[in-house]
Amino acid sequence: MERKTPTDLLTIGEVAERVGIATSAVRFYEQEGLITSTRTAGNQRRYPRHVLRRLSIISYAKRLGIPLTEVADVFAKLPPDRMPSKRDWTRISQRWADLLDERRRRLDALQAELSACIGCGCLSLNNCNALNPGDVLASQGVGAVRLDDDFTDLTPPAR
């Protein structure tokens, strides 16, 4: 078995297999500017080994529900020609831990409101008459107007 070195260039298939993603995903992340490659004389992509860490970070962020725009923002602060260091990862993971804490706080607040009137106009819950008598909240907009805008979409947009 051939010994791998940090300076090896990898094919798109090798990268995809090692990270556990489709080659189309590798191309997509490259198109989005999250990773880089070089080209052979035959125009085939070759990836530096540090791309494996970047793609692994992307995959981890995806599992956490971190939007790709956030990943791009973090990567924009890193040199594109080297592997993210331990210090980089510490900074990234703390930033994302803070995002997850905020999301958890928002979800906890939303969970506390699950059985309450959301101001949708149905007037069917016991507390609707107290919180939205005669559907007075209709004047504030459409839908569930008692829900804070922070709670309307806790799922990051697909990108």
Describe the protein's architecture and organization.
- By secondary structure, the protein is mainly α.
- The protein has two domains: 9-112, Multidrug-efflux Transporter Regulator, Chain: A, Domain 2, CATH 1.10.1660.10; 115-150, no CATH class.
- Helices cover 45% and strands 5% of the residues.
- The protein has helices spanning 12-19, 23-31, 51-64, 68-76, 86-112, 128-131; strands at 9-10, 38-39, 45-48.
- It has a three-stranded antiparallel β-sheet.
- Helix 1 (12-19) crosses helix 2 (23-31).
- The two termini are 39 Å apart.
- The mean pLDDT is 87.
Keywords:
Multidrug-efflux Transporter Regulator, Chain: A, Domain 2, 45% helix, 3 strands, mainly alpha, 3-stranded antiparallel sheet
